[in-house]
Amino acid sequence: MTRRSLFHALSRRKRLRDLNCDNNNEEEDGYRRITRDDDNDDDDDADADSVELLREDNQIVNNRNRFIKLPTLVFLSISNSIGTGVYVFTGLAANLYAGQFICLSYLIASVVCLFSAFCYAEFAARIRASTGSSYTFAYYSLGELTAFLTGWMIFIGSLASIAANAIAWSSYLDSLTGYAVRNFTINTMHASWTASAPFNDHLDLLALAIVTLLFLVSLMGLKLTALFNNLIATLNIAVLLVITVAGLVYGKWQNLTDTPYSGGLNGVVKGSAIVMYAYFGFESSTFAIDETINPTRNVPLSLIVSLFTITVLYCGSSLSLVMMQPFTAIDVSSSFPSAFGAIPWLHILVSIGPVLSLTGALLISIYSLERIVFAMSRDGLFFKFLARTSTLTNVPYFVTLVSFLITFALILLIDIRT
Question: Which of 203, 247, 113 is nearest to 411 (CA)?
Answer without folding.
Answer: 203
